[in-house]
Write a structure and sequence with these properties.
The chain is of the alpha+beta class and 298 residues long. It contains eight helices and twelve strands. This is Recombination-associated protein RdgC.
């Protein structure tokens, strides 16, 4: 289980629950199927899936868990078509329904469709690294990460985590790196992608598969555009795209790291999951603090 997009949060005080204790807490909000009249439901499920029953997988003191969500799939076009058909029948009878009645018709249509709707399941994995003090969520959007935070808040008595703060914004740091050749912090190198934003016109320039230190890219920055996304590589071990909100997207671990974990885990699925998690957690414990230091020192 290698995370691909991460939102990370700093614990304000040590996280002291063991894996078994956290499992007991998460059991209070275990995942369940959507009710007949529910549009969505969420709850905690075993990160090992069919290979485990524990809601927390513990490796070297680090804790992996998973939020499972079910959503009823109701195409908006189908709902609208059925609502319009009922409104048309009423109008044909010589009466025009008001806004309140239209709303009631829509509610009735939803009530009829919900029990028969298809269900789509999704999983959001997260891990707690108690020794280094991080909560890391494998989510490509702040909305998905917020859903995990909200569920944890409802499950645990307290969740003392905060968004990490930096002396300057990631946007300012990334723009500075592009503007000043050779200013990229130690252990980091440029990738071949960036996204630049013009605050005056709201125009966006997307550059892919290019040398971000080229005269063309740097000319945009010199003209006042700011970097909102930038592809980077850390120690040749992790390639990623840093965003202006400090989220890390399209993270890819070097093949050597993945292969090393594979050699340790072998063919057993649980052992492989354990080895992958152990290796990934170790990388996060070094990578995240260095990324924050790089932004601060830009």
């Amino acid at each position: 289980m290698w995370f691909r997009n991460i939102q990370f949060y700093r614990f304000e005080e040590p996280f002291k629950l063991t894996g078994e204790q956290l499992h007991e807490q998460l059991s209070k909000r275990q995942s369940r199927p959507c009710g007949q009249m529910e549009m969505a439901s969420n709850g905690w499920s075993a990160p090992l899936g069919k290979n485990g029953t524990m809601l927390v997988h513990e490796t070297a003191g680090n804790l992996m868990f998973c939020l499972r969500r079910e959503d009823k799939v109701l195409p908006a076009s189908l709902v609208r078509e059925l609502v319009d058909a009922q409104i048309f029948e009423i109008e044909q009878a010589g009466r025009t329904p008001g806004r309140k009645e239209k709303g009631e018709i829509r509610d009735q249509v939803l009530a009829e469709l919900l029990p028969r709707a298809f269900v789509r399941a999704s999983h959001t994995f997260a891990c707690i690294l108690p020794a280094s003090g991080w909560l890391v969520i494998n989510a490509s959007s702040a909305r998905k990460a917020d859903e995990v935070i909200e569920a944890l808040n409802k499950t645990l008595t307290t969740l003392p985590v905060v968004m990490p703060s930096t002396e300057q914004s990631p946007e300012a740091a990334m723009t500075g790196w592009l503007m000043r050749a050779g200013s990229l912090p130690e252990d980091f190198t440029f990738g071949e992608e960036c996204e630049l934003h013009d605050a005056a016109s709201s125009a966006v320039v997307r550059c892919r598969n290019v040398d971000v230190m080229s005269d063309e890219v740097r000319a945009h920055v010199t003209e006042g555009l700011t970097a909102t996304k930038l592809a980077l590589n850390w120690r040749e071990r992790i390639s990623f795209v840093l965003s202006e909100d400090l989220s890390v997207k399209r993270m890819k671990f070097d093949t050597a790291i993945v292969d090393e974990a594979g050699d340790q885990g072998g063919d057993d699925e649980v052992a492989r999951f354990d080895a992958d998690f152990a290796m990934m957690a170790a990388e996060f414990s070094e990578f995240i603090p260095q990324l924050l230091t790089a932004v601060d020192g830009a």
